[in-house]
Amino acid sequence: MNRMTPYMFIAPAALVMALALFYPIGYMMWGSFRDWDPTQNISETEFVGMANYVRLWGDAFFWESFSVTLIFAFTVVVVEMVIGVGLALLLDRNIRGMSVLRTLFILPMMIAPVVVGLVWRFMFHQTYGTFNRFLNWVGDTWWGSFLGIGPVDWLGQNPLLSVIIADIWQWTPFIFILSLAALQSLPRSALEAARIDGATGWQQVWFIKLPLMAPVLVVTMLLRLIDAFKVLEVILVMTGGGPGLSTEILALRIARTAREFRELGEAAAMSNYLLMLLMLLTLGMFAFNRWTEARSRKLKFAAEEEG
Amino acid sequence: MADTTYDRQNPAFYVLIAILILMSVGPVIILLANSMRLDVDITSGVGGLIFMPTIRNYETALCDILWYEPEHLRFCQIRFGGAFINSIIIALISTALTLIFGCMAAYALVRFKFMGRDTVSLSTLAVRMIPPAVLLVPVFGLWNNAFCIDNDTLVGGWIRDTFGGRGDVCLAGTHSGIIIVYVAMNLPFVIWILQSFIVQVPKSLEEAARVDGAGPFQVFFLVVLPLIKPGLAAASIFTFRIAWNEYLLASALADRDTMTVPILIVNNASEFDGLGTIFATGMLLAIPPILFTLFASRQIITGMTAGAVKG
Q: What's the mean per-residue pLDDT of chain A?
């Protein structure tokens, strides 16, 4: 009994995950080599080898949506990191209103992506949207018309930008809160020492705070990057992937291939490509982490040798 | 934190904080305001934030579970009430199951050490990477075909004879089919968060309980669980949030009777005549997350930072 205890604790979780996570993924990999229609049972389908993968490799639409995904994910992560970390550095002080800000800042992340998409689609609307109404109002003033400010066709002409703005609104708080927590757990002594040595605010940020925060920042960025590839509902509701393919990220294209085009095999192959891309990113990030750790250990060792 | 004294700061910081608060709350206020406006007022945009609020949109949305018949409606088109009940059932059950399974697994991983903690953290992070869209195809295929009680064996044939239909009982289109996906999807994250809390429970406490004659399960439920309450709160909010908000997998699995609220919103979002109603539906979907934010923000922040900072 005693030797079995750990397994009994783990068994339920392992069973559920095996049944509803690992088995489906294996099933998907198997299915990606088959010509598979949603009405068919997988045992009735025909084995086509790498055909699905090859077809996707030569499919311009797939590459279009692949590049949209990459542009979206990297833009979003870079902008959010800069704004989030910047705000955290700026507001890491004992000031009234911070607790209110931290509470309300979580709101965008908690609300359903579907609802976020709904609200932002309204705000970006061509005629009655909040932004265009504001721009119209500005355009009517003398300086507004002088500068030529007028309504923008957000979702029609700049769909990717609109989607990116919505995502920045939703997820910058995540990075802000994590980097604030990292800042507040920094060793006070290092900051104190820097201040006594006469480091300016910028020097403190560049040479003390950011390097010390680096491990947390890397993990935060990794988490955010992974999540950026999962975004689907906001874009689905805001633009539906269009106009054209301009905002059709891979996740959306997988869903469409499976549902509208009824090509489950191809959708599975596409899922596999996405999975490989994410795996590569994750591994790269881990390697980077290992490398920085090793380097800092080496530096420390060298410093000790000298001292 | 209530009794802290604040340093005097440059007023620009207060302005910045005010702007940030306004930006994060603004869209939610727009949602709330629009949900209480008539369609005509939303599209014409008169009055800004000053208008006569109406609950007509909410009446339209909730028409199938209201006890009276709203006079402006001829028939009940959006069946939000039923979807709302489905959402509650699915979110609550999957949260409960995820937490129970998750804490047990996390406890075993931390205390019994039959796998390196690093390996587990790495693999949970790796599993966390899987986007729901990747699960869409296999889950759709499996839940409709492989995870069925077959139509020739067992009770499937009897069901076909009695009720008609395809003749097999599948996981697709049932609450449990959706719940099991959510539990599996959330488990890695919950295990990851709870691990960082369980590590902090002093081992001596457990040993004392064991000396007093408690079995491993008693130690776990009576000693460890009460000590990691903050972690449990954080984990449950995150799990509930995902199960409550998720659209894609639910839309692949649900049928008319097991539809959840996000599916309903997406299905109706493209229709332009029910603008106010769809905002009302969205507002109702947003209420639980808003309540969590207002009353449990500290737990949420703890959970978020525990995952990344301590992990």
A: 83
Q: Which architecture, in CATH terms, is B81-297?
A: Orthogonal Bundle (1.10)
Record the tokens describing residue A17, joined without a space. Answer: 């995950």
* A122, A254, A286 member nearest B136 (Cβ): A254
The answer to whether A74 contacts chain B (CB < 8 Å) is no
Of B16, B31, B180, the CB nearest to A119: B31
What pLDDT digit, counting tens, does each position of B155-192 carry?
555 555 555 445 455 666 677 888 888 898 888 888 88
Pinpoint the alpha helices (H) of chain A. 5-17, 23-31, 51-57, 60-91, 98-105, 107-110, 113-123, 130-140, 142-147, 154-157, 159-184, 188-196, 201-203, 210-228, 233-238, 250-259, 264-306
Nearest alpha carbon to residue A129 among A119, A138, A139: A119
Using the predicted structure, report yes or no on whether residue B310 has a pLDDT greater than 50: no
Q: Which two tokens stand for residue B6?
A: 């604040």
Average pLDDT, chain B: 78
- Residues of A with CB below 8 A from B220's CB? 9
Every domain of chain B and the residues it spans: 9-54, 81-297
Among B residues 160-179, those touching chain A with beta carbons less than 8 Å apart: none
Amino acid at residue number A173: P
CA distance A79 to A85: 10
Asked whether the beta carbons of residue B191 and residue A13 sit closer than 8 angstroms, the reply is yes
The burial class, CB within 10 Å (0-12 / 13-18 / 19+), for B43 is middle
Residues 6+ apart with CB under 8 A from B87: B244, B260, B261, B262, B285
Q: Is the pLDDT of residue A173 over 80?
A: yes
Instruction: Provide the whole-model pTM.
Output: 0.85
ipTM value > 0.85: no
* Chains A, B: CB pairs < 8 Å: 289
| Pairwise CA distance, residues B164 & A197, whole Å | 83
Q: At A264, is the secondary structure helix, strand, or coil?
A: helix
Cβ neighbours, 10 Å, residue A244? 10
pLDDT in tens, B50-109: 677 777 778 777 777 777 766 666 667 667 788 888 889 899 999 999 999 998 888 888
> Using an 8 Å Cβ cutoff, are B205 and B223 in contact?
yes
Distance from CA of A307 to the nearest CA of B (A): 31
Residue A1 is predicted with a pLDDT of 46
Percent of chain B with pLDDT over 70: 77
Nearest chain B alpha carbon to A13? B101
